Amino acid sequence: MEDVIKGKLFVISGPSGAGKGTICAKLVELAQVVLSVSMTTRAPREHEQEGVSYYFVNKERFKEIISEDGFFEYAEVYGEYYGTLKKPVLDMLDKGCDVILEIDVNGAMQIREIVPDVVLVFIMPPSPEELRRRIEGRGTETPERIQKRLERSESEITQISKYDYCVVNDILDTAVDDALAIIRSESQSGSESRASFVSMGSCVKDSLSRAARLKLEKADADKIIEQYQKSSMKLN
Ligand code: ADP
Ligand code: 5GP
Question: Are 214 and 167 in contact (CB under 8 A)?
C-alpha cells in the first residue's frame, strides 16, 4: 500500500463535540488538503448535505459495501455504521493530494495497520464541562444521545497515547494554527519543498517547531488522561 501512496494521509479523531468538524473545515480552507467524505447509516442532521457532510445510506447498503470490500476502514459508533470509502481516498492520494480522514479511534487504528506512516492527530476538549456545553450548544442531539457521546468520550480519551499529536481545542484560532502546523510539517508537499531548499523559510521553521511541541510522548498522554479523569470525577 505504501508504495502506491503519493499524498500524505492524516487522521483527526476526538470526542464528539471536541471541535473536529469545525477545525477540519478551517484546514480545508487554509491548507492544501482534502477532507474525505465518509459514509454513515445515521440520520442526517438538519444542516447536513448528502455527499458533503456524509453519504447517508441504510444498514443494508452499508453491509453490501462491506461485502464488496469497498471500505478503507469502518466502525460501529453509537450503534450506527461509519466508514471511509476506499476508492475516492486512494484516488486522491494517488494524485498526490494530502487527505484528512475525520474518523473514530477504531477506524484510526485500522488505517495505521494499512498505512503505517499515517499521521494521527487527537483533538482534545479543554475540559469535560466545556465538552458538554459544546455538544448541548450544537443542538443536534437528543439528551440520550448527548449522554451516550459523553460516556464514550471518557474511553476515547484513554486511547490518546496511540496518537502522534494532541491539539487542545480551547481557543479555536490557536487550535487551527496548531493543526495547520502539524499538516505543514508532515505534508508531502512540505517535505518535498524542505528537501529542495537549502535554507528553510521561516514559515516552515515555525511550523516544524510548533508541531514538535504538539508531538505526544507517553508521559504527556498519561498526564492528559489523568487530568481529564480528575475533572470528570469532580463533575459526577
Ligand atoms: P465535533 O465535530 O468534534 O463533534 P464540532 O466541530 O461540531 O465538534 O463542534 C461542536 C460545537 O462546538 C459546535 O457548535 C462548534 O461551533 C463549537 N466549537 C468548536 N470549537 C470551539 C471552540 N474552540 N470554542 C467554542 N466553541 C467551539
Ligand atoms: P457524528 O455522528 O458526530 O458525525 O460522528 C460520530 C463519530 O463517528 C465521530 O467520532 C466521527 O469521527 C466518527 N466517524 C465519522 N466518519 C467516520 C468514518 O468514516 N469511520 C469511522 N471509523 N468513524 C467515523
Answer: yes
Instruction: Give tens-digit pLDDT for 18-67.
Output: 999 999 999 999 999 999 999 999 999 988 999 999 999 999 999 999 99
pLDDT at 233: 79
Q: Whose CA is nearest to atom 17 of ligand 2?
A: 103
Number of domains in the chain: 1
- In the predicted structure, residue 202 carries a pLDDT above the cut 90: no
Q: Which domain holds residue 124?
A: 9-36+98-235
The three-class DSSP label of residue 78 is coil
Q: What whole-number distance in Å separates Cα of residue 212 and Cα of residue 98?
A: 20
Q: Is residue 148 part of a domain?
A: yes
Residue 51 domain flag: no
Give the pLDDT confidence of 135-172 residue by residue, as tens digits. Answer: 999 998 899 999 999 999 999 999 999 999 999 999 99
Out of 22, 38, 86, 123, mutate this one to test ligand 2's pocket (max ligand atoms within 8 Å of CB): namely 38
44 in any annotated domain: no
Buried-exposed string 43-74: b where 16+ CB fall within 10 A, e elsewhere: eeeeeeeeeeebbbbeeeebeebeeeebbbbb
Contact 162, 99 (CB under 8 A): no
Residue 112 lies in a domain: yes
Ligand 1 close to Cβ of residue 149 (< 6 A): no
Nearest Cα residue to atom 23 of ligand 2: 103
Whichever domain contains 203, its CATH number is 3.40.50.300
